[in-house]
Amino acid sequence: MTRPWIIMVASLAVLAGLLLLLREPDSGSALTGGDQSGAPTVHLLCAASNRAVVDAVAKQYEEEYAEEGVRVAIDYGPSQTLLTTAEVAATGDLYLPADDSYLEIAAEKNLIDEILPLARMQAVIVVTKENPKGVSSFEDLLREDVRVVQASPDGAAIGKMTKRVLSESGRWETLDQHTMAYRTTVTDVANDVKVGSADAGIVFDAVLSTYPELKAVEIPELEPAAANCAVSVLKSCRNPQRALHFARYLAARDRGLLEYERRGFTPVEGDVWADKPRVTLYAGSMLRPAIERTIQEFERREGAVVESKYNGCGILVAQMKAGEMPDAYFACDTEFMKQVEDQFLPSTDVSQNELVIIVQKGNPLGIAGLRDLAKPGLRVGIGHEKQCAMGWLTQNVLREGGVREEIMPNVTTQLPTGDMLVNNMLAGSLDAAVVYLSNAAGSADELDAVAITDLECSIATQPYAVAREAQHPQLAARLYEAIMSAQSQTRFESVGFRWEALTAGEEPTPPTDSE
Predict the structure, then answer these.
(1) E strand spans, 205-347
(2) Nearest one of 382, 440, 386 to 411, comparing CA atoms
(3) What pLDDT is recorded for position 23?
(4) Which residues pair with 357 in a beta bridge?
(5) Mean pLDDT, the chain cut into blocks of 10 residues (515 residues total)
(6) Helix (H, G, I), strand (E, B), or coil: what is residue 333?
(7) Which of 121, 230, 397, 404 is most exposed by smallest CB count within 10 Å?
(8) Using alpha carbons only, what angle is made at residue 244 by residues 242 and 249, rounded to the nearest 5 degrees?
(9) How far apart are CA 313 and CA 196, in angstroms?
(10) What SS3 class is residue 370?
């Protein structure tokens, strides 16, 4: 059979598989979200390279949650074909391709939401244990007596990756010409070598865990061809909480990742498994109005609990230095992240907030700027320098403006949060206070805000970081992603924050060391 005919036949096979996936589902099938008994079902579109792991983990999951009758329905196939299924049929709950490059494509097409990293695998040459042709190098693949098969670059992750890597080194065209046939999946390639239909192929090393008759040959030409496996929640998912429950199980260091390691993958540093995980977030008090609703939505979707502890960042830092440690920290200012940065992964700046002077409605005392806070008899409130970022920042602003010595005699109150200062203003016990703009936003009907101009030091930047010793680092990173969403940005801006996180063309990077 000529090579064009082989390619055509392979293409028809892919199309047939796709049409099978797109068929009208029977009542009670995986696509309906439950079986005939109404039991909850998670429908996973999974690359064939992950089959051995996922079959084992799904069985374990179903056994562990047998009382709930939960079922995992899995469609295996080439990564590209599964992606097309998700796009065209708009069906499925989870998508697990062989390489995260397909998740990038899925994200561009707006097909997925959360992504949970799983493991890594390496492209290698596959031969039988006996290796009668003595294949040990890339050059051996080009010998006339060596029959080579590969997975299709148009449908399978291993084929796509091999073509990309070898094209970059100028070796692809020669190997392409010498390839006897292209198969639909990586397991098809392994099977060909196993039964003797081919002498060598290119597969992911982890696939060989279920093939005791075969062995891997590592070559430098394929070293850059490493796949990062991750599972994502599809936007077509009907029950995100149930889908995320299984995805978290698959990505847990003491559940699914144990099987990934046993099967020859290199797993990421996953979360500890919990049926309903709890993640602790320390956050500056001024962030509460911006993130509280987002956290509530995150809890419902994840089936998790976020234990939020709001306080002045000076107080939070003192507690962390005394031994308390959250899973994540959202600081009011970078200065208060620096004080504990050795306990956290690198932080990411999310937003900015500026200091303002709040006065009674109509500004009856005519306060136009910092220097006016030194007027005789004025009762001024500021944040406590040791207890909150706002107080620390205020002292910097007063010093930078050259008015600290004049104003401090009028300071009658120093408190750990801006909200407490606002309450004092509303009660009439202060004439003016220095707070964040976000603190003032909720009292615009009763108080006015006076800008502090010409001083860049009056702006605070809020960073988010995940703790190095977090029990649920991936969950804490997904909380970050929720905070980075467009809907969350709108909430930040509605209460007076500036959106600092992204500039044009950039993408948010979750603060985690899982890769």
Answers:
(1) 214-217, 226-234, 266-267, 278-284, 305-311, 328-330
(2) 382
(3) 38
(4) 434, 450
(5) 41 42 35 51 95 96 95 95 94 94 96 96 96 96 96 92 95 96 94 96 92 96 95 96 97 97 93 96 93 97 96 93 96 93 96 93 94 94 89 89 93 92 95 91 89 78 95 96 96 90 47 47
(6) coil
(7) 404
(8) 100
(9) 66
(10) helix
Of 462, 390, 383, the residue nearest 415 (C-alpha)? 383
Residue type, 317: V
Tokens 């081919």 sit on residue: 198
Q: Are 147 and 126 in contact (CB under 8 A)?
A: no
Residues 494-509 as b or e (16 or more Cβ within 10 Å = b): ebbbeebbeeeeeeee
Give DSSP secondary structure letters for 427-462: TTS-SEEEEEHHHHHTTTTTEEEEE--S-GGGEEEE
Where are the domains positioned within the chain? 3-118+227-267, 121-226, 278-351+464-499, 353-459
Answer CATH for 353-459 from 3.20.20.70, 3.40.190.10, 3.30.565.10, 3.100.10.10? 3.40.190.10
In a 3-state reduction of DSSP, which class is residue 254? Answer: coil
Burial of 327 (0-12, 13-18, 19+ CB in 10 A): buried
Tokens describing residue 24: 């009208």
pLDDT digits (tens, 9 = 90+) for 366-375: 999 999 999 9
Q: Token pair of 374, please?
A: 């030194």
The values of phi and psi at residue 460, to 5°, are -105, 140
CB 357 within 8 A of CB 433: yes
